[in-house]
Each structure stands twice: as structure tokens, then as C-alpha cells.
Design goal:
This protein has one domain: Rossmann fold (3-Layer(aba) Sandwich). The protein has four helices and six strands, in the order βαβαβαβαββ. The protein has a six-stranded mixed β-sheet with strand order 3-2-4-1-5-6, with helices on both faces. Helix content is 31%, strand content 22%. It is an alpha/beta fold and 157 residues long.
């Protein structure tokens, strides 16, 4: 059994043309990221990895979640390629994870994160809100087997 938590980054400041990657969280975003961390902690799942887009707003969301739950910062991995990645690419990244990882948080961006949630489980999410959390239970032993409708939504927040 594996668990995948899909989280859209917390609310960010208004963008400036050409600076989207560098947008910071606003005050509400910081509070919402802390709440997302608390939601994860309530799940009772032992976390193995936080994988995040390297965009400032996503990485900051991931770090706040890690801090909130007391998760080691060395197990928070930033990936440039996850910035605005499409669902197919996010799936490919997840399929390449080590099978010794049982529970993973992926912090990303719309539309890819919403599309991935819809592909992995029989759900329909038009647009995941900032700080939205979807927990998927996966009856898999290998991340390579992750694919369309292999997940069951345990919770949506």
C-alpha cells in the first residue's frame, strides 16, 4: 500500500510579468500552508518524501508543511522540472520513485496537479484551490504501476 498526497501550492502574491517562478507566498498563503501541514499530520500516515516544484511559492509551501509536521528538511526535494508540469510528466516523475517510499507528498501547480488527481482516481476536480490537499490510497507495491485510476481518494480538503 502506498499513499500519495497531491497539494497545490499555497496562495502567492500577485505576479509580475516574467517573474512567475519567483512569486512568494502572501500572508494568507503562509497560514494556509501551515493548515495543510496540520491536515497531513491528522492523516496519521508516516511520510517518506516531499517532492516539490522549485518555484518559490511551491518550495516555500513544501518547507512550511515539513516544518509544521517536524519532517526532515533533507527529505524535501525540489525539482525544476515540476514547475508548471503537465499531468503526464508528473505521473512519469512519480513512476520513477524508489519503491521503498511508501508515502509521498507532491506539491505542484494547476492545471497539472488537478489533472493528475483526476487521472489517478475516479474524481472530477475542475480546479484544485491553493493549499488544496488530496490524499490518494494506492493499492500498489511499485510506483512504476501508478497509472490511470489506480488510486482511491481517501480525502479531499
Amino acid at each position: 500500500m502506498k499513499y500519495l498526497f497531491l497539494i497545490r501550492h499555497a496562495n502567492a502574491e500577485n505576479g509580475r510579468k516574467g517573474k512567475d517562478f519567483l512569486r512568494c507566498l502572501d500572508k494568507q498563503g503562509v497560514l494556509d500552508a501551515q493548515t495543510a501541514g496540520k491536515r497531513f499530520a491528522e492523516s496519521g500516515v508516516k511520510l517518506d518524501l516531499i517532492l516539490t516544484s522549485a518555484a518559490k511559492r511551491a518550495a516555500h509551501t513544501a518547507l512550511i508543511i515539513a516544518e509544521t509536521i517536524g519532517f526532515p528538511m533533507r527529505q524535501v526535494v525540489e525539482e525544476q522540472e515540476l514547475y508548471l508540469a503537465e499531468a503526464a510528466h508528473l505521473l512519469h516523475v512519480l513512476q520513477s520513485l524508489s519503491d521503498d517510499l511508501g508515502s509521498v507528498i507532491l506539491v505542484g501547480h494547476n492545471p497539472g496537479i488537478s489533472e493528475l488527481a483526476n487521472a489517478l482516481a475516479e474524481t472530477h476536480i475542475d480546479w484544485m484551490p491553493t493549499s488544496g490537499v488530496i490524499c490518494l490510497t494506492l493499492d500498489l507495491t511499485s510506483w512504476r504501476d501508478l497509472g490511470v485510476r489506480t488510486g482511491c481518494v481517501s480525502s479531499v480538503v
